[in-house]
Amino acid sequence: MISSRPELSWLEDPGVYEVNRRKAHSDHVFPFFKEAKAEGINVLNLDGTWKFVWDEKPPEYGLRGLSDETGERFFQAAFWEKDWKEIKVPGHVQLQGYDSCHYVNTMYPWDGHSELRPPSVPWEDNPAGSYIREFTIGDDEAFLKDRVFVSFQGVETAFYVWCNERFVGYGEDGFTPSEYELTGMLHRGVNRLEVRVYKRSSASWIEDQDFFRFTGIFRSVFVYCVPPVHLEDIFVKADLTEDGRDGRLEAELTVESQNGGCYEADLELEDNGQMVLARTEKGQGERNVIVFTGRIPEVKPWSSETPFRYLLRITLRDEKGREEIITQYIGFRRFEIKGGLMCINGRPIAFHGINRHEFDWHRGRAVTEEDMVSDILFLKRHNINAVRTCHYPNQSLWYELCDRYGIYLMDEANLESHGSWQKMGACEPSWNVPGSLPQWRDCTIDRARSMMERDKNHPSVLIWSCGNESYAGEDIREMGRLFKKRDPGRLVHYEGVFWNREFEDISDMESQMYTPPKKVREFLEHGNGKPFIMCEYMHAMGNSLGGMDRYMELEYKYPAYQGGFVWDMIDQAIAVKKSDGKEYPAYGGDFGDRPTDWQFCGNGILYADRQISPKAAEVKAQYAFVRPRICLEERMVEIENRQIFSDLSGYEFVLKILRDGEDWREFSFEAAACAGETDRQSFETIGLEKDWKPKDGKEYVLKISVRLASDTLWAEKGYETAFCEAVIPGRPEKSKSNFGEPVTLIHGDVNLGARTGQMELMFSYQDGGMVSLKQKGRQWLLRPPMPVYWRASTDNDRGNGFAEESRIWLSKTWFPDLSRGKVKITEEEGEARFSFDMEDAAVGYCVRRDGRLGVNVTFHGKKGYPGLPVFGLGFELPKEADRFSWYGRGPWENYPDRKAGTGLGIYESTPLEQLSRYLKPQECGMHMDTRWLTLQTVQGEWIRFEAEEAPFHFSVLPCSIQELENARHREELPESFRTCVLIAGAVRGVGGNDSWGAPVYPEYEIPGDRDITFSFTVSAGIA
């Protein structure tokens, strides 16, 4: 749309989404790439400090309905007589002291405040910010004579632009560039760019993503001028021949010539400095399209495994010899559906993907290069090969990084209207937008076009996505048609057709969200002829991601199942400094924002500060492409190569043997298998003696480590990408407890004392348990150990209703049934046994002559009881016991359904380190399959728990279950006055198919009608 004056009415008119905006084009002029360059184009970077003012009640709203033929009154209301302050660009208004943060998932942020339907905006609650940036034009004549443009890379949500008080243009869709011509508006000396940004517009109805609703100029702004002959757009199609041997290049150049004169265009393609293609064409006219073609024999294809790129150089030369030179890297690859499967370079692909919001806990979506590189390294190191840019196009630099490092991208348009068709989970699309509404069609299609035109030259982009959770309709169908017509070399994705199969043709693939593996299997058994992906699955909210292996099994069994994208990469939480001077993550509702969805923004396998959460280890293990296995019975090792192009030459393999948890022996070996094949080797081939078999009764753990054989862009030589292990159980001799002095009993009226070795114990008839355990003067018990049936409920426990249905176990844990007087005492062979029987459990103690305390704990299952969150025995120890080591799974916390990424070994930690930083405190710090646990004070005093018949599970935390349950934030947890130890015989899985209803798989539940028994010993001493 072309207009010389601004109008406020555009804010609620979906038919006006851009005014005077330049046509979308490729990102070859983006000045912040690290590799691509644009010579001959002059750039002024306007990032930095701008003048700013925030109006809660914009005065220009008083002009609505009044005549403003020139737009001067609009400008004056927005920029005159203001109390100017400062703001950083890029950046969000809400993170720089203005307005307040607001998080909401599917609801619209005005729900409950304003009764609205699309495309109306809440004028009474639609603040605006005015930005001014002064910049100086000096002796550089180019900015005064050549064509000049200003580029806004990202602005939320709608904005008007002036330059030196002359109206320039209007824009929406803040996640793709908006560019406007400034030719003839600049003068030598100081110039001013004026921008008015509005928090809401009609565009807000189709920008209902699950994120914080920020405002402002959050990506870079720059002014650039181009020479008289300028390359406006490049469309590079770098394909492969059918046999995949050669590359086919088609480069479509759109050239603008100010005076319509003649020019010459050179194209050169280099492979590591060696020219492989050179072409020259001549052209004439104000606007012309030149097409270069060529064939590259024995091309090196681009893929995630081998992201090889060629350097493309394009030179434009006008009649006076003035040049514009564009250099960028391109990759040759072929992505298509072949035989019903998505194939990359002729072979079926598997997306081991994740959804990624652009986010930083200080800067929100104004992420930096450092943030992006950190994310890329994290992805590669965790075997993640694909990203869905949920739910908007990302910064241009991200695409260059993905090209370079090898990350497949599903590039998603800035479209989500979740709240217009789904309310509280129910599908009700009566007023859905954009739907099939003609007035919304152009703005919807424009979002697709803007993304595609910008990103079309990046080999990492395999799939165009029409947006997210916007139901379906003719408008989105037109988006899909645009993608397929303009760029047939990529596929089109849209999950929304799941809700309305009338529009099945939009998406080239069957895409679903959070469908349970069983249902996916049923779908795949029948199918619909399309390849299948989960565009969102494994909802990683809080302590989650249990049962991911069920989805990975589908990849093995069903070729049509081609992977998925975990939800999601990073917690969206804002750093807030508290009175102690420390920063803590704040989530929805913490800013007084209503409506809100609270901590539903915390779904990442990275914490908000980009520290790695324990959940990431499971993703890394499940997504591994090189998968070792140990077959003890056959004395064989298998190395399965699930890569699709590469052999195993990039890896080295190490067999490590642990003996009772300690490193014992290590063997390095090589493996050879082409992509999709498996290498099998005997133990003897690796280096183990032919007749080796443990005979000393100790436990042996055989572990194969897959490591990088050389340095890569993303990790150093020796980095472990995957591992596996197998256990040869030990046969420890039964403890001879009949040595040492007989146990001494001291009978009292209320208490019973016992001495064994240097351990002094006291059992209370009144308190129903052991009240004292002393060793050389150190009292280890703050309270009697009691059965524990409850864990601090996880987000999944609450979301699927388990916390509510099992709440009886909360009361039984917090208010235990004490066995006052119900104690059985027996003495035999100098040892003493005590059994404390309760309504639902029994705790037995055996004071042994060898100086140890045997403990046996039993749960009495009953018909009608709900499932248990956990069953164990809880100990409150002195806070001085602030360090511990264990032989079990680690180093990360792990659970029955989430332990593939943790290996057996001896580890060390502290209670505070075990307190995982989930946004809402909850169950955390569990370690499965533990052989022994030792806690220690700084003075060297120690207490040790050792498994007897079978390994136990444990957690060591600086706070109690009750404190975790009650706290809404980590900083609300009280100062630690104790160390809380839980020795558990049964632990419920954490689940994670979703966080609003999906149950834990049955084998990871703890049925309430079954008995549970486990045993361990306790000993103490001083080092």
Roughly how much helix do the residues carry, as a percent range? 10-25%
Query: What class do helices, strands and sheet pairing give?
Result: mainly beta
Quaternary structure of the protein: single chain
- What is the count of DSSP helices, taking H or I runs of 4+ residues? 14
N/C terminus separation: 80 Å
Task: Return residue spans where pLDDT drops below 50 for at least 5 consecutive residues.
Answer: none
Rg computed from alpha carbons, rounded to a whole number of angstroms = 33 Å
As a percent range, the share of strand residues is 35-45%
Q: What general outline do the C-alpha atoms trace?
A: globular
Q: Tally the beta strands.
A: 64
Walkthrough of the structure:
- The protein has 14 helices and 64 strands.
- A hairpin with a 2-residue loop joins strand 41 (651-659) and strand 42.
- The termini are far apart.
- The strands form 15 sheets. Strands 52-53-54-55-64-61-60-57-58 form a nine-stranded antiparallel β-sheet, with no helix packed on it.
- The chain is mainly beta and 1023 residues long.
- Helices cover 12% and strands 38% of the residues.
Give a quick rundown of the structure.
With 1023 residues, this protein is mostly beta strands. Helices cover 12% and strands 38% of the residues. It is globular.
Note the topology.
Elements: E1 18-19, E2 37-39, E3 42-45, E4 48-55, H1 72-79, E5 85-89, E6 103-104, E7 128-137, H2 142-145, E8 147-152, E9 155-156, E10 158-163, E11 166-171, E12 178-181, E13 189-198, E14 211-212, E15 216-217, E16 221-226, E17 229-240, E18 247-257, E19 262-271, E20 274-284, E21 287-296, E22 310-318, E23 323-330, E24 335-338, E25 341-344, E26 347-348, E27 351-355, H3 369-381, E28 386-388, H4 396-405, E29 408-412, E30 422-423, E31 426-427, H5 438-455, E32 461-465, H6 474-486, E33 491-493, E34 510-513, H7 517-526, E35 532-539, H8 549-557, E36 561-567, E37 574-577, E38 583-586, H9 615-622, E39 626-631, E40 636-641, E41 651-659, E42 662-669, E43 678-682, H10 683-686, E44 700-708, E45 720-728, E46 744-747, E47 751-756, E48 759-764, E49 769-775, E50 778-779, E51 783-788, H11 795-799, H12 802-805, H13 808-814, E52 823-828, E53 831-837, E54 841-847, E55 853-859, E56 870-878, E57 883-890, E58 903-909, E59 927-930, E60 932-936, E61 941-947, E62 952-957, H14 961-966, E63 978-987, E64 1012-1022
Parallel strand pairs: 27-28, 27-36, 28-29, 29-32, 32-33, 34-35, 35-36
Antiparallel strand pairs: 1-11, 2-23, 3-16, 4-5, 4-7, 6-14, 7-13, 8-12, 8-16, 9-15, 10-11, 10-13, 17-18, 18-21, 19-20, 19-22, 22-23, 24-25, 25-26, 30-31, 37-38, 39-40, 40-43, 41-42, 41-44, 44-45, 46-47, 47-48, 48-49, 49-50, 51-56, 52-53, 53-54, 54-55, 55-64, 56-63, 57-58, 57-60, 59-62, 60-61, ...
Helix pairs in contact: 3-4, 5-6
